[in-house]
Write a structure and sequence with these properties.
By secondary structure, the protein is mainly α. The protein has one domain. It is built from two helices and no strands.
Length: 25
């Protein structure tokens, strides 16, 4: 798939699980 779509999906995952990674999203 296009890189931009993969990046968008990755950002969504990070936003859904900020506590697991220790990031304020």
């Amino acid at each position: 798939r296009p890189l931009i779509i993969a990046v968008k999906e990755n950002e969504t995952v990070l936003d859904d699980t900020p506590d697991k990674i220790g990031i304020d999203a």
